[in-house]
């Protein structure tokens, strides 16, 4: 396979753990569409936080 940056797009989640691991093992980055009701968890914490309190549609970070 050619060297380069690969982005794998998925539709609102990647539920097959084995497929997610295969994507990571190839050095690719899974780029997932999310909905407004989504939540996230900061690594090392136990609480899930609502996305809509930390950004809005069209916000992005680098």
Question: Could you provide a short overview of the structure?
Answer:
With 62 residues, the chain is of the alpha+beta class. It is built from 1 helix and 4 strands.
Structure description:
The chain is an alpha+beta fold and 62 residues long. It has one domain (7-53). It is built from 1 helix and 4 strands; from the N terminus they run βαβββ. A two-stranded parallel sheet has the order 1-2. A two-stranded antiparallel sheet has the order 3-4. Strand 1 (7-10), helix 1 and strand 2 (29-32) form a beta-alpha-beta unit. The longest helix is centred in the middle third of the chain and has 9 residues, at 17-25. It starts with 6 loop residues before the first strand and ends in a 12-residue tail after the last strand. The model has no long low-confidence stretch (mean pLDDT 81). This is IS4 transposase.
């Amino acid at each position: 396979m050619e060297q380069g940056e690969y982005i794998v797009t998925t539709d609102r989640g990647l539920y097959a753990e084995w497929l997610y691991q295969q994507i990571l093992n190839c050095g690719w980055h899974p780029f997932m569409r999310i909905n407004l009701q989504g939540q996230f968890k900061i690594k090392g914490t136990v609480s899930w936080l609502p996305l809509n309190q930390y950004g809005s549609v069209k916000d992005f970070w680098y």
